[in-house]
Amino acid sequence: MTDRAPAASAEVHLTPTEKRLWNALRGEPGRAFERAELVALAMPGTLVLARTVDVHIRALRRKLGPAARELKTVRGVGYRFGGSPVAGGRPS
After folding, report:
1. Rounded to an integer, what distance in angstroms lies between the CA atom of residue 51 and that of residue 73?
2. Domain 2-81 falls in which CATH fold?
3. pTM above 0.70, yes or no
4. Residue 87 and residue 10: Cα distance in Å, rounded?
5. What is the per-residue DSSP string for 10-44?
6. Residue 4 has pLDDT above 90, yes or no
7. Does residue 89 carry a pLDDT above 60?
8. What percent of the chain has pLDDT over 90?
């Protein structure tokens, strides 16, 4: 499965889970997602630890190269993609 990084023209090969994570995060720029939310979105019906998301985010960052700068860690919450934190949204 392939997808394109936002600022790159080269194809990036993502696993199905990485692709679902990527689509969820970039679908709502600026929104901070809790790890448990990302597990539910990217790995539905799978019993995994919420920290498993960290492993997939690390792999995504490696694959996305410079575009990975837009994947932000939100301390105490989880992750968000680019932009400013959403006003009135989760703490970031």
Report:
1. 13
2. Arc Repressor Mutant, subunit A (1.10.10)
3. yes
4. 33
5. SEEE--HHHHHHHHHHHHSTTPPEEHHHHHHHHST
6. no
7. no
8. 62
